[in-house]
Design brief:
The chain has about 500 residues and is an alpha/beta fold. It has 3 domains: about 300 residues, Ribonuclease Z/Hydroxyacylglutathione hydrolase-like (Metallo-beta-lactamase, Chain A); about 120 residues, SCP2 sterol-binding domain (Nonspecific Lipid-transfer Protein, Chain A, 2-Layer Sandwich); about 60 residues, Rieske [2Fe-2S] iron-sulphur domain (Rieske Iron-sulfur Protein, 3-layer Sandwich). The protein contains 14 helices and 23 strands. The strands form 5 sheets. The protein has a 6-stranded mixed sheet, with helices on one face. Helix 10 packs antiparallel against helix 13.
Length: about 500
């Protein structure tokens, strides 16, 4: 490999004597998600001299912070766009409708030759919107690029069997709205944020330990929030958005041997740079000052973006009925597992309360209806979603809402219903999540009792045989979900695991 450069967020550039590749470009000065997200650190002024001679752009999934359509539109028409062959062709349609470039789809775990580089995608199980990891074999080196993809234990085992990883690139910082948009008191919020951050670090530790790469590059995050409403999130003492310096110093203190594998890069850096000098840069040492200057540079962009979101001074009930009713009809099995209602408190120029009842399959004005989820959302944003100008997942990532839930439990099926919002995606999700999960069992001993336990977690197929037992609960090693040994019930949602007492 002649060169490997970090371009910011989840993007790298690398080349051989004959072939050059960029992954997951995001260079737009307008950020992403209606200018609610911006790159951190800023990568819009790096050297783009390679752009006109680029052979391939490999894109993992459709999220705007991984697929910068405006950048792709400006590429040389000879540059080829490569992505995984997803079941849902929504992403493919997006690319074809905006680009004249040749688009290459590659099947899951199939190797495709890009010049003298081997490319193998690995498609994530349908937990929400489709995603893919990218494996590149370059001469005698292997780049394992997970970006946002959440591999199961079976995925990790497959990689270990097939590849000797040189560079591991994996998300280390949250892109989630949880817990920041929920009504927790300060102490609870700090506790939950800390737990989430440490869990992310644990995932990184587990992945590094199992794959044993030569180098780990902190990757795919975090974004920063530059509009006035959300700016404070960047500076929270306990935060779900740690930066590259934060994770490195954590590992240096708690896992010094693993920290020796770290390479902390900033946009434009080559892999062989003196990366420890990066830790002295203002974006890490004086984050507030850096962000204030950054915000000032993007102020006009943010204001312009907000003016494009149409004000709403009328009822959104009819639009909500038209939007939700067909989705509920096409997601019958998902709705059955939601088993309740959600409430939208619509605020802004026109206030109203709208109930979506998944049991009775109806949308109506609120009238003391029982509900287990509640969202506070401005009418202009709800209207933006109902008109299909923004997906629910894109909106959730903006953090421009508040939520409450009773009981305080994550509803995977509700989130799937909202984030997928597409009949084809619903079918894929239902085929995966609701088929017989009880085929493969393993033996388990605890407190003198013998159990037979479902091997793979119903969430993302984490290998439960690798899980720990804590306080009478078996803990999934992939995403930390806990299931009672007594009845198999998940402690955080309505999922369950088949567990039988043998003796």
């Amino acid at each position: 490999m002649k060169d490997l450069k970090y371009l910011g967020h989840a993007s790298i550039y690398f080349r051989t004597d004959t072939t050059s590749i960029v992954t997951d470009p995001w260079f737009s000065k307008t950020g992403a998600y209606e200018s609610n997200w911006f790159q951190y650190p800023d990568n819009t002024e790096i050297d783009f001299s390679w752009k006109d001679d680029l052979d391939y752009v490999c894109v993992s999934h459709e999220h705007q912070d991984h697929c910068d359509i405006k950048f792709l539109e400006k590429l040389n028409p000879s540059t080829k766009i490569v992505t995984a062959n997803f079941t849902n062709k929504r992403f493919l349609k997006l690319l074809k409708s905006n680009l004249v470039n040749e688009i290459i789809e590659v099947d899951d775990r199939s190797t495709y030759i890009l010049g003298d580089i081997k490319y193998t995608p690995m498609i994530q199980v349908p937990m929400g919107q489709e995603d893919s990891a990218m494996i590149f074999e370059v001469d005698d080196e292997v780049i394992m690029n997970f970006n946002d993809m959440k591999p199961s234990q079976k995925d990790i085992n497959w990689i270990k069997e097939k590849f000797d990883v040189t560079y591991l690139l994996k998300q280390f910082s949250g892109a989630s709205w949880y817990p920041l948009i929920y009504d927790y008191d300060d102490n609870k919020m700090k506790e939950l944020c800390k737990d989430k951050r440490l869990f992310k670090y644990q995932v990184i530790l587990n992945t590094i330990t199992q794959l044993n790469p030569k180098f780990y590059i902190p990757f795919a995050g975090p974004p920063c929030f530059l509009n006035d409403k959300m700016f404070h999130i960047n500076l929270l003492e306990e935060n779900t958005f740690p930066n590259e310096s934060d994770i490195y110093h954590h590992f240096k203190e708690h896992h010094p041997k693993v920290a020796e594998k770290f390479v902390v890069l900033t946009p434009g850096d080559s892999i062989d740079c003196n990366w420890k000098e990066n830790l002295k840069k203002e974006c890490f040492t004086d984050k507030e000052k850096y962000l204030i200057n950054y915000r000032d540079r993007r102020k006009n962009v943010i204001e312009e973006s907000l003016t494009k979101i149409e004000r709403v001074d009328y009822s959104l009930l009819k639009k909500s009925v038209k939007y939700f009713n067909p989705l509920m009809k096409s997601a019958k099995r998902i709705c059955k597992n939601i088993d309740g209602s959600i409430l939208f408190n619509v605020t802004g120029d026109y206030n109203e309360r709208i109930i979506v009842d998944f049991v009775r399959k109806r949308v109506k004005n609120f009238d003391s209806d029982k509900h287990f989820y509640e969202f506070d959302i401005e009418g202009k944003w709800l209207n933006h979603i109902l008109e299909n100008k923004m997906t629910w997942e894109e909106f959730f990532l903006t953090l421009n809402f508040k939520s409450r839930r009773n009981p305080d439990q994550y509803s995977e099926h509700l989130m799937a219903f909202l984030k997928l919002a597409d009949p084809i995606s619903y079918k894929e999700y239902e085929d995966f999540h609701f088929h017989d999960l009880e085929d493969e069992m393993f033996d388990l001993k605890f407190n003198g009792k013998d159990y037979k336990c479902q091997r793979y977690c119903p969430h993302a197929r984490g290998d439960m045989s690798k899980g720990k037992i804590v306080d009478g609960k078996i803990v999934c090693p992939t995403h930390n979900w806990k299931f009672n040994l007594s009845d198999g019930q998940c402690t955080t949602n309505k999922s369950s695991l088949k567990i039988e007492v043998v003796k």
